């Protein structure tokens, strides 16, 4: 499926594909510390390119 982020169509950085499968992945504590973020039970939006398998990650900011 096509994904749009920040008003722009998501394009795979590797192969340029525009078809993705969406999912979510929990962000563990180490990763959160690395990002210097407080909230511990956040999950990231992940999109897997159906052409090459590259995973694009997006952090869901609350605003
Ligand atoms: Zn790709």
Walkthrough of the structure:
The chain has 63 residues and is mainly β. The chain has a single domain, classed as Single Sheet (N-terminal domain of TfIIb). Helices cover 11% and strands 35% of the residues. A hairpin with a 5-residue loop joins strand 4 and strand 5. The chain is elongated and about 30 Å long. The two termini are 25 Å apart. The model has no long low-confidence stretch (mean pLDDT 84). It binds zinc ion (ZN). The site of zinc ion has 8 residues, from loops.
Portion in beta strands: 25-35%
Range of helix content: 10-25%
| CATH T-level topology | N-terminal domain of TfIIb
The SSE order reads: EEEHEE
Termini, distance in Å? 25 Å
- Quickly name the level 1 CATH class: Mainly Beta
Number of domains: 1
Q: What class do helices, strands and sheet pairing give?
A: mainly beta
Strand order of the largest sheet: 3-4-5
Per DSSP, the total helix count is 1
The tally of strands reads 5
Bulk shape: elongated
How large, in whole angstroms, is the Cα Rg? Answer: 13 Å
Bound molecules: zinc ion
- Uncertain stretches: none
Q: What is the arithmetic mean of pLDDT?
A: 84
Instruction: Write the CATH architecture name.
Output: Single Sheet
Oligomer: single chain
Biggest β-sheet: count, sense, barrel? 3 strands, antiparallel
